[in-house]
Amino acid sequence: MLSIGVFVNPIAGIGGPTALKGSDGAEVQRIALARGAVPHAADRLRAAFAPLSSRSAELRLLAWGGAMGADALAGLGLHVEVIGVPAVPSTAADTRAAARAMLEARVDLLVFAGGDGTARDLAEVVPPRVPVIGVPAGVKMHSGVFAVTPGDAAEVIVRLLDGGLVAADAAEVRDIDEAALREGRVATRYHGTLSVPRVGGHLQHVKSSGREVAQLVLAEIAETVAERVSEHSGVVMLGPGSTLAAIKRRLGIEPTLLGFDVMRNGHLLAADADAAALAGYADPSAIVVLSFTRGQGFLLGRGNQQLTPAIVRTIPRANLWVVGSRTKLLSLEGRPLRVDTGDAELDAHLCGIVSIISGYDDELLYRIGR
Fold this sequence. Notes:
The protein is of the alpha/beta class. It has helices at 26-34, 41-49, 70-73, 92-104, 116-123, 150-162, 178-182, 214-230, 242-250, 275-281, 309-314, 326-330, 344-350, and strands at residues 2-8, 59-64, 80-84, 109-114, 132-136, 166-176, 188-199, 235-238, 260-264, 267-273, 287-290, 298-300, 320-323, 337-339, 352-359, 362-369. Mean pLDDT is 86; it is low at 201-210.
């Protein structure tokens, strides 16, 4: 199941129809409501999830209570777990509390209805590994985290469910100074970045007659991994396969095609390492780089059994780097990546959305299942 954290900023956008240039601040909200403004953010969230009612069995929705999410999803035939209750009226602190609770529950994706102010609050607490979709409901929305329409947000979720290609972009969060805007000055401020899933076509970077050029794609993937490895001072365990072989060559070592090679700071520590050797290098700072089997989609449990469950448990899930081209992902025909470590609890822990390095500074979001 795809696990999604869902919440609404219930007052987002109420300052727009009343020409208040935004919705920030209790006084602005009071004036907007006095002028007859009707909150619509919940309707926008509902419009994003209504097309998903037929996919209820595939979704695990965790919502903040009342006007901050649960009310908007009521009656859609979706199973919703309410995991928290906001203050009345809710504040930015509730937004941050909701996000933290959903992160602790290990959601794969956060979906919110709001504007730049809500995105700004999320940028304070959401790490880069968790993708976020903003359903546009605010006045300004200068940030790059929003779907064009609620329907576009639904399309991204459907694509993730169906195993389609979804790009992982880093989007800037920006918010405008509303007081300056009311004085006729436009001043935006950068507040960080969030990871944003975007529906992408088959190809983005390397093209030739509409198809990926395998050697060029491998070179792009290898260059990206090499750049990231150069910034890491700990151990890097490089798994088996032809994609990893290209990475190993780029890092300056002769690859073990069907085995693990271990490096640190540009130096080879172990070639064709077995489970005992890998266990000796494993710690929470270690990185593991893996690909998956073409057609079958096995990420763990086929051809890389040197990486035992005990080793995998030592290494944070975020330190598992997955590499593979779009063509290789398409060979799965929408099936999820598979894990079969022999440890059912660990396999369940590994399930969810993973970011896949698929080109130069290019990533896709894809599901791990069992």
